[in-house]
Amino acid sequence: MTGSYRPWILASAVVFLLSLDVPVEADKSQESFVIAASPSMRGPVEALSREFEKTHPNVKVRIYYDTGLELRWTIAGMENKSTPKNYFIGSGPIHVIAPGGDELITRLETKYYVLPGTRRPYAAVPLVLIVPAPLVEAPSSFEDLGRGKYRIAVADPALTELGRQTFQVFKSLNLTEAVKDRLDVASNARGILDHLLYGQADVGIIFGPDAVREQERIRVVATAGESEFKPTIHSMAMERFCPNRTLCDEFLSFIQSPKAQALVKSLGYSSVVGSQE
Predict the structure, then answer these.
(1) Helix (H) or strand (E) holding 197
(2) Contact 154, 192 (CB under 8 A)
(3) Is the pLDDT of residue 80 over 90?
(4) Are 245 and 90 in contact, with CB atoms under 8 Å apart?
(5) Is 144 helix (H, G, I), strand (E, B) or coil?
(6) Which of 33-37, 41-45, 93-97, 191-195 shows the lowest mean pLDDT across its residues?
(7) Is the pTM of this model over 0.90?
(8) Distance (Å, whole) CA 272 – CA 107
(9) Closest to 99 measured CA to CA, from 64, 126, 53, 60
């Protein structure tokens, strides 16, 4: 996207967020709680939001989705004096942000666009070994791939993060040479599932959330360990102008609670509570 479109994006996004300040007639008794999130985190963000509403009946969670870069532009635009409305501490339209990775939160912290110290990790993306549900003689670990004759469906490491992380695990376990002649390279996770389910491969390697979406047809037999795999961490943080810091604190504490973590795990993610400050 060229720079000429950036003012239009900022204006549109800020106008949308301004509209969130106006209560809907039917919801006057409810306080809006606004999350700016990446579309890639739609599943866990929406599930956590609905669960939070159950314990906060006077709160309605509203989610604004945009890509990481455009989320950054939107939040930065709120700091710009040329935007339609100037915000002050406690008066902004966004409560928390939930990007598709922690890099954006780190950048926003350095600009003081989110409050330092409010970052709360709530999910990590595991790398899992899958097989068709009916398969009887399945490997029980990634190490088993080097000892058997399994045909392995993997994502292209030149084109995808999934592929790059898969090959990093092979390297960490000294499996690269042992498996290289048995690899069935697909373009993405969907391709891996297709190759697996149509008999082109015996096992596949994908991210946990993708496996959960196909859990009726496949099963997970192993998860890459921490020593050979560094999963992507997902966190949320309080936006600088958050209009209700008490409510923000409650939500950020909730996403690390046992109930929230059980919900995150049911969606194929792994817990990171206690692993970071």
Answers:
(1) helix 189-197
(2) yes
(3) no
(4) yes
(5) helix
(6) 93-97
(7) no
(8) 21
(9) 64
Q: Which two tokens stand for residue 80?
A: 């710009």
Greatest pairwise CA separation for the chain in angstroms? 65
What is the residue extent of each domain of the chain? Answer: 3-124+233-266, 127-223
What are the φ/ψ torsions at residue 159 (nearest 5 degrees)? Answer: -120, -20
Length of the chain: 277
At the topology level of CATH, where does 3-124+233-266 sit? D-Maltodextrin-Binding Protein; domain 2 (3.40.190)
CA angle 250, 100, 108 (to 5 degrees): 70
Class of domain 127-223: alpha beta
**Rounded to the nearest 5°, which phi and psi values hold at 189?**
-65, -40
pLDDT at site 72: 65
> β-pairing, 183-186 with 96-98?
unpaired
Residue with tokens 């998860």: 223
Torsional sign, CA 230, 231, 232, 238: negative
Count how many Cα atoms sit within 13 Å of the Cα of residue 248 in the half-sphere of its side chain: 27
With H, G, I as helix, E, B as strand and everything else as coil, classify residue 221: strand
Among 20, 2, 15, which residue's Cα sits nearest to residue 78? 15
Give me 92's structure tokens: 């902004």
Q: Which of 31, 39, 35 is nearest to 49 (CA)?
A: 35
Among 13-27, 39-53, 137-151, the range scoring the smallest mean pLDDT is 13-27
Percentage with pLDDT > 90 across the chain: 64
SS3 state at 216? coil
Same-fold call for 3-124+233-266 versus 127-223: yes
